[in-house]
Amino acid sequence: MFRVAVVTVSDRSFAGTRADAAGPRVAQLLTAAGFEVAASVVVPDEQPVIEQTLIHLADEQDLALIVTTGGTGFSPRDVTPEATLAVCGRRADGIPEAMRAASLAVTPRAMLSRAAAGIRGQTLIVNLPGSPKAAAENLAAVVDTLTHGLQMLRGGQADCAAQP
């Protein structure tokens, strides 16, 4: 079982003017998929704060996976992808590509997602949209494959030739 964190990026949820609906939904889906949600935090749409949070969770908490929700759109304050890529040493472009492809089957607005994914040390960081519905749909598109990637990332035995 991999330990994970859910980071909600939202000025309104951080300020307490809107309840965080996406973070708990993502945590529920991760738990159902067999992950241990070790941390759930809400941060504002501030790149330095997002970066510090991701670094802390990856480096000090040694979590295998960090899933963010929010801050992936076109708004000037949507900086989650920039924060994610700034703290990652390697990109994992196939993950957001798969999420966008699956989401395009639901809505043409999926092409507006700027979600990113990358690797910091032995931690995978994946951005999801801020809408609870979109976050759940995007996570569903990749969650089954994440375990295989995390096994490889964490140095475990993973059979790359085995069919999912």
- The average pLDDT score comes to 95
- CATH architectural designation: 3-Layer(aba) Sandwich
**Largest sheet: number of strands, sense, barrel closure:** 6 strands, mixed
Shape: globular
CATH class: Alpha Beta
Descriptive keywords:
164 residues, alpha/beta, Molybdenum Cofactor Biosythetic Enzyme, Chain A, 6 strands, 43% helix, globular
Describe this structure in words.
With 164 residues, the protein is α/β, with parallel strands linked by helices. It has one domain (7-153): MoaB/Mog-like domain (Molybdenum Cofactor Biosythetic Enzyme, Chain A, 3-Layer(aba) Sandwich), CATH 3.40.980.10. The chain is built from six helices and six strands. A six-stranded mixed sheet has the order 2-1-3-6-5-4, sandwiched between helices. β5 and β6 (123-128) form a beta hairpin. α2 packs across α6, α3 (47-60) packs across α4 and α5 (94-104) packs antiparallel against α6. The longest helix has 22 residues, at 132-153. The chain is globular, with a radius of gyration of 15 Å. The two termini are 18 Å apart. The model has no long low-confidence stretch (mean pLDDT 95).
Brief write-up:
The chain has 164 residues and is α/β, with parallel strands linked by helices.
Tell me the layout of helices and strands.
Blueprint: E1 3-9, H1 11-15, H2 22-32, E2 36-43, H3 47-60, E3 65-69, H4 80-87, E4 90-91, H5 94-104, E5 117-120, E6 123-128, H6 132-153
Parallel strand pairs: 1-2, 1-3, 3-6
Antiparallel strand pairs: 4-5, 5-6
